[in-house]
């Protein structure tokens, strides 16, 4: 189960997201469970490639209320609890 501030990525489309609200659902992208990125690895990647994380788009699951922020956006379809997550425009999560 995802925990707040964990980073997940999709090994198929390379989409990368951060959990901002925990839910019980499993994060899925491209029809496959997303992979948890280790905290150290995430910080290293973050520092190297994301000086200013894009002002994000967030996605929320209507079933478990899990909310994620997209760091690397791709065309991959994000799902949780067996359904597509809903996009939220211009949230202000820091
Ligand atoms: Zn994907
Ligand atoms: Zn869910």
TrEMBL record:
Keywords: Electron transport, Iron, Metal-binding, Transport. Residues 3-36, 58-86 form the Desulfoferrodoxin N-terminal domain. The keyword 4Fe-4S does not apply. InterPro entries: Desulfoferrodoxin_N, Desulfoferrodoxin_N_sf. This is Desulfoferrodoxin N-terminal domain-containing protein. It holds the Pfam family Desulfoferrod_N. It comes from Candidatus Jettenia caeni. GO terms for molecular function: iron ion binding.
């Amino acid at each position: 189960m995802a925990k707040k501030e964990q980073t997940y990525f999709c090994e198929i489309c390379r989409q990368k997201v951060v959990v901002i609200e925990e839910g019980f659902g499993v994060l899925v992208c491209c029809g496959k469970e997303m992979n948890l990125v280790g905290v150290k690895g995430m910080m290293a990647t973050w520092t190297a490639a994301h000086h200013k994380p894009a002002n994000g788009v967030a996605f929320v699951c209507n079933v478990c209320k899990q909310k994620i922020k997209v760091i690397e956006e791709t065309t991959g379809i994000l799902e949780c609890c067996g359904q597509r997550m809903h996009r939220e425009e211009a949230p202000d999560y820091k």
